[in-house]
Design brief:
Elements: H1 8-34, H2 40-47, H3 52-70, H4 77-104, H5 118-125, H6 144-163, H7 167-193, H8 199-208, H9 210-228, H10 233-252, H11 258-277, H12 282-289, H13 291-307, H14 314-351
Helix pairs in contact: 1-3, 1-11, 1-12, 1-13, 1-14, 3-6, 3-9, 3-11, 4-6, 4-13, 4-14, 6-9, 7-9, 7-10, 9-11, 10-11, 13-14
Length: 352
């Protein structure tokens, strides 16, 4: 039995609404890094925009479940899924590789401690950079999110076919991955990586890698089926147990990922409430519709705004944020006309 509160078209608008808020958050955190206001409460508020990435992950998982079920019954569904996902991500990302190499160069930096050479470019081009601590965002700024997304896309057909609409299973898998990550992988990875990288690089990798982000995707899949039906007491109890374990180990065993878990579950509740109620707002939706291109290009916009010495302070932050959003959106529109629209037509022909 399905308890639908809004129709499908409104749901899709709500997803764009969420993507719009996600990209505003991501732009906000990068703007405050480039044009800090030096007012703590403002800088902290903008800094929270970093969780826009996790909001993107929730929406991605929900969308994949929606698309898979909408196309239920088509021939060769797995092949067509991979074709659509690959050409949605790869063309713009591959274009971003030479663009940022030209701008940022190939020397060592905070995001590329080993510099950028053939290994880094090859790993990035094949979406394997997420497995390498020193290369996870070495070529394309923010490229770690693309590595995480592509690995999720690779696994998704197996996940959705194996688990289907068994909501409790998604929670259990997410919980199990969280336990594995917190109580084994982080210590094991630290022991191996400490011989090659400093603590800053290691901690960044432990946060950015797929295993740390994976529970978000499973919760996102759960939300798709929960919104279509209802949340049972068992499911609520599992989330409460998960949170309880996280808080216990946070205060008694100092597990580092417990705070991130709290943010994740809070975002999950936010996503559930927004989609369930069908919230929409056209200007935010318009940003959401172009969010992928905006994500890739806003780093470039901030780079050039910094070159014109926009400065620091509250006014610089507000002006920088407004200009970054506006310029990135305009550029994303031209990218859509020149690249994305033609790619979509090609994919449609291939999958027809």
């Amino acid at each position: 039995m399905e308890l639908e509160s809004v129709n499908s078209s409104e749901r899709l608008r709500t997803l764009d609404f969420l993507r719009g808020w996600a990209i505003l958050g991501v732009i906000g955190v990068h703007c405050v890094q480039g044009f800090p206001s030096h007012i703590r409460v403002i800088d902290v508020a903008f800094g929270l925009g970093k969780f826009g990435v996790q909001l993107f992950f929730f929406v991605s998982a929900w969308t994949m479940c929606y698309v898979w079920n909408q196309r239920n019954g088509e021939t060769r569904p797995v092949f067509k899924f991979y074709v659509r996902r690959f050409f949605r991500i790869a063309p713009l990302f591959w274009l971003a590789i030479p663009t940022y190499l030209l701008i940022n160069g190939t020397g060592p930096s905070q995001s590329a401690p080993d510099g950028v050479g053939f290994r880094q470019v090859a790993l990035t081009a094949f979406f394997l950079h997420g497995f390498s601590a020193g290369d996870i965002s070495s070529v394309v700024p923010g490229g770690w999110t693309i590595a995480v997304e592509m690995l999720f896309y690779l696994l998704f057909p197996l996940i959705i076919r194996s688990v289907a609409d068994r909501k409790v299973v998604y929670i259990c898998i997410g919980f199990a991955i969280w336990l594995l990550n917190e109580f084994w992988f982080k210590d094991a990875a630290t022991a191996v990586l400490s011989a090659h990288y400093n603590d800053g690089v290691i901690q960044e990798f432990l946060y950015l890698n797929f295993l740390n982000q994976a529970p978000i995707f499973f919760i996102g899949c759960y939300l798709y089926f929960a919104i279509r039906a209802y949340m049972t007491r068992t499911e609520v109890g599992l989330f409460v147990l998960w949170l309880g374990v996280g808080l216990i180990v946070r205060y008694f065993h100092h597990v580092r990922g417990a705070d991130f878990l709290l943010v994740t579950l809070t975002l999950a509740a936010f996503v559930y409430a927004v989609i369930k109620s069908g919230l929409v707002f056209k200007p935010i939706e318009m940003l959401g519709q172009r969010s992928y291109a905006i994500y890739l290009i806003h780093f470039l916009v901030i780079h050039y705004l910094n070159l014109i010495a926009l400065g620091v302070g509250p006014l610089a932050l507000v002006v920088g944020f407004f200009l970054t959003v506006s310029i990135s959106y305009v550029l994303s529109y031209f990218i859509y006309i020149l690249i994305e629209k033609n790619t979509q037509l090609f994919v449609k022909r291939v999958t027809s």
